[in-house]
């Protein structure tokens, strides 16, 4: 493998790939659902398929299952690709390479939050609302807004990736070859090591040095947990 070629860790490629596939499928079926049952602001000549909401919910559930693992990886091993403590200061250096890299990290972080918002708002909805013509619920509007934000973030994510790394960086996420330190043979031991870091004492130690980055991680993970738990009480 050429060392001057962009390289993405294997686990990142797998998690990013599965999350991306489930997300895009959820987004496509989300619009089809809106077009079938609503279509007040923009309607395309799509066939009306009454089962599309169930299909959208299935892809949304797949995304919700995969996303927590991806989010943990992103905040832990992929944190260099997210907003840094000095990113806001570097965003003042308009037009310079560091400005683009900082903007790329900011967009990556916003994309994680947009997906969290979409998944949480979707879980707050009732599957009977749209088929019964109940279109004025708060969580339905929130879910519509979340997918609009998600679409914008996804486009910006692709544009920023192309800007900072060009086509080679875009294509690097699709490559299968991996370095020795990324071998799946090492994943079990790495998972055990990560599990040891979850001991209560170490968690308290981690919380003692709270910063904005850690707060962002906590907010995303708590929202994911809430997306699973809160609907159980309806």
TrEMBL record:
CC terms in the record's Gene Ontology section: plasma membrane
Record's keyword annotation contains Cell membrane: yes
GO biological process, any: respiratory electron transport chain
Cytochrome b561 bacterial/Ni-hydrogenase domain residues: 8-163
Transcription regulation as UniProt keyword: no
Subcellular location(s) of the protein: Cell membrane
Superkingdom, taxonomy of origin: Bacteria
GO MF terms held by the record: electron transfer activity
Membrane-spanning residues: 12-34, 54-75, 98-120, 140-171, 212-230
Main location: membrane
Topology term for the membrane: Multi-pass membrane protein
Key words, A-Z: Cell membrane, Membrane, Transmembrane, Transmembrane helix
Name of the protein this chain belongs to: Cytochrome b561 bacterial/Ni-hydrogenase domain-containing protein
Species, as recorded: Microcystis aeruginosa PCC 9809
């Amino acid at each position: 493998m050429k060392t001057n070629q962009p390289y993405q860790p294997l686990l990142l490629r797998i998690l990013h790939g599965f999350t991306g596939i489930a997300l895009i499928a959820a987004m496509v079926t989300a619009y089809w659902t809106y077009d079938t049952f609503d279509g007040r602001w923009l309607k395309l000549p799509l066939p009306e398929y009454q089962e599309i909401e169930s299909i959208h919910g299935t892809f949304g559930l797949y995304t919700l299952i995969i996303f927590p693992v991806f989010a943990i990886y992103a905040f832990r091993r992929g944190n260099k690709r997210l907003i840094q403590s000095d990113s806001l200061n570097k965003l003042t250096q308009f037009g310079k390479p560091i400005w683009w890299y900082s903007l790329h990290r900011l967009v990556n972080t916003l994309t994680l939050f947009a997906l969290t918002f979409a998944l949480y708002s979707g879980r707050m909805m009732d599957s009977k609302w749209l088929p019964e013509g109940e279109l004025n619920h708060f969580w339905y509007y929130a879910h519509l807004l979340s997918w609009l934000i998600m679409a914008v973030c996804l486009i910006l994510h692709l544009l920023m990736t192309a800007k900072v790394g060009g086509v080679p960086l875009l294509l690097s996420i699709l490559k299968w070859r991996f370095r020795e330190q990324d071998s799946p043979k090492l994943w079990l031991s790495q998972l055990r090591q990560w599990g040891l870091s979850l001991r209560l004492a170490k968690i308290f130690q981690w919380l003692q040095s709270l910063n904005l980055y850690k707060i962002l991680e906590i907010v995303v993970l708590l929202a994911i947990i809430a997306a699973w738990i809160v609907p159980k009480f309806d």
